[in-house]
């Protein structure tokens, strides 16, 4: 029983990272109908920026804040300079461009920072937590990870539901032409969506990098699982992205714990294929697909 609890809590800790990546993908998809395959590269680059700040100042929290700012800025700049000209182009153009952006970011990281594996500090102790005499199998850092992503998700949900900016972003995602006629600056809303997605990606990168080490391709596998979580939940649903990430994390934790860690990636890809075959719109998507 204790082993089961440990695997479950470890899965939630991993799943919350997948949920952050999934949320960033959902944000961009809802606003622009583009799947950003460079999201992992953006997160990785933000983590490198944070590591440089941490090395130079000795402050993890300053590096954390700079990473979030870097992700926010990088998302906005990429949307304004590279993605916006693709708005009226065939969808395949955007796919090719975002894949190219991923290659570019990973290449630049290798040139600037080198390709060697670099350790990354954790904000809190890696000592395991326990409930009485029962070890929980998670650390204070895992608890911080869960709290940070859930807080970001709740804040994002509040912005979308209760603020005028959120209303304009939802109007842009639902029908850009109608929103434009109503006076919404669609371009700004799309830039904001990419910026927030960049921030969420940077958050995920900061939280997962201590356990994966940092190198130019360090976020590739995490992105694939985050993409799988987004597909499971439905690319239209922020709630589905969180639930999909948690579900995927727990299932893969059971696979790794009971069947062997070498099967985790295989099961992750199998889950993606299965969902695409059975319910390609995701488990939490609406019956009717919006057309933008």
Quickly describe the structure.
With 292 residues, the chain is mainly alpha-helical. It is built from eleven helices and two strands; from the N terminus they run ααααββααααααα. α1 crosses α9 and α9 packs across α10.
Describe the structure.
- The structure is a single chain.
- By secondary structure, the protein is mainly α.
- It has a single domain (2-117, 131-278), classed as ABC transporter involved in vitamin B12 uptake, BtuC, CATH 1.10.3470.10.
- It is 74% helix and 3% strand.
- The chain has 11 helices and 2 strands; from the N terminus they run ααααββααααααα.
- A two-stranded antiparallel ribbon has the order 1-2.
- α2 packs antiparallel against α3 (60-83) and α5 (140-162) packs across α6.
- The longest helix is centred in the first third of the chain and has 31 residues, at 2-32.
- The chain is globular, with a radius of gyration of 19 Å.
- Mean pLDDT is 85; it is low at 287-292.
Q: What is the element layout, followed by pairings?
A:
Blueprint (H helix, E strand, L loop, with lengths): L1 H31 L6 H19 L2 H24 L7 H23 L14 E4 L2 E6 H23 L1 H11 L1 H6 L4 H27 L7 H14 L4 H22 L4 H15 L14
Antiparallel strand pairs: 1-2
């Amino acid at each position: 029983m204790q082993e089961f609890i440990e695997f479950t809590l470890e899965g939630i800790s991993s799943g919350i990272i997948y949920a952050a990546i999934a949320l960033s993908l959902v944000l961009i998809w809802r606003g622009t109908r583009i799947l950003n395959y460079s999201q992992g590269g953006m997160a990785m680059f933000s983590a490198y920026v944070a590591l440089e700040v941490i090395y130079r100042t000795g402050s993890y929290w300053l590096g954390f804040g700079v990473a979030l700012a870097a992700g926010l800025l990088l998302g906005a700049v990429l949307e304004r300079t590279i993605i916006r000209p693709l708005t009226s182009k065939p969808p395949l153009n955007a796919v090719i461009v975002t894949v190219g952006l991923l290659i570019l970011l990973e290449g630049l990281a290798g040139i600037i920072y080198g390709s060697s594996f670099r350790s990354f500090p954790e904000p809190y102790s890696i000592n395991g937590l326990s409930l009485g005499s029962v070890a929980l199998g998670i650390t204070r850092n895992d608890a911080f990870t869960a709290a940070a992503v859930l807080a970001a998700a709740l804040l994002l949900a509040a912005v979308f539901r209760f603020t005028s900016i959120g209303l304009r972003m939802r109007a842009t995602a639902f029908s850009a032409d109608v929103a434009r006629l109503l006076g919404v600056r669609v371009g700004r809303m799309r830039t904001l969506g990419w910026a927030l997605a960049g921030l969420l990606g940077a958050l995920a990168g900061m939280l997962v990098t201590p356990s994966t080490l940092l190198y130019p391709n360090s976020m590739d596998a995490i992105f694939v699982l985050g993409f799988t979580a987004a597909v499971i939940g439905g690319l239209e649903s922020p709630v589905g992205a969180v639930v999909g990430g948690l579900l995927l994390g727990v299932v893969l934790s059971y696979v790794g714990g009971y069947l062997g860690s070498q099967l985790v990636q295989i099961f992750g890809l199998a889950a993606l294929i299965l969902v695409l075959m059975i319910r390609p719109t995701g488990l939490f998507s609406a019956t009717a697909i919006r057309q933008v």
